[in-house]
Amino acid sequence: MDALDEIKGFLACETPDLWIQAALANQDILLIDHAHCEKKAASTAMRLMFRYVDRVDLLNKMSRLAREELIHFEQVLAIMQERGVVYTHLSSARYAGGMLKKVRTYEPGHLIDLLIVGAFIEARSCERFAKLAPFLDDELAKFYRSLLKSEGRHYQDYLGLAEEYAGEPIEDRIQVFREVEQNLVESDDDEFRFHSGKPTFMA
To answer: CA 9, CA 42: separation in Å to the nearest integer?
Structure first.
C-alpha cells in the first residue's frame, strides 16, 4: 500500500466532486487559501515546539515540518506572483476550528488529540492535492503532485507521534476525529476554502 492509499484508508470519505468544481472555478482563492494553510501549518508546528520542549522526537519532526511548510508557502507565493494573484487576508475555513472543538483540555490527552488533528489536516490536504491535480494546468498539477510526498510524511509524523506518546491504542480517539472530519467535508458550506465542505453555491 502506498502513502496515498494509506491516507485514503485513514479518511472516512473522499472530497466531494462539488468541491473540485468549486476549486476549479475559484483558483485564485484556492491559491490564496493554500498559502495561508502552509503558513498556519508552520505556525502550528512551532507552537508545539514551544509548548512541549521536553519531547525531543517532536522537536525534531516539527522543526523539519515547519521548514518544509514555509518552503511550500514561498512556492505558492511565487506561483501567485507569476499569475498576478494578490496575496490577501481570507476568513478561516470552519474545518480546523471544528476539529479542535473535540480536543481534550488535559495532558497527555491534549497533545495526543492535537497530533491526531494534525494528521487529519495533512491527510486531507494530501487527498485534495491528488484529486485536484488531474484537472489543473501543467504547472499547478506538477506542483501539487510534488507536495504529495512531503504532506504524506507529515501525516505519518503526526500520527506516529500520537501513537508514541499515548502508549496505548488510540483508534477510539482517531474515530472521534474521523467522524467530525467527515461531517465537515461532506456537509454544506457557503464559502470556498482549501478545507471547506460541500459548496452550496455549486449545487
So the answer is: 26
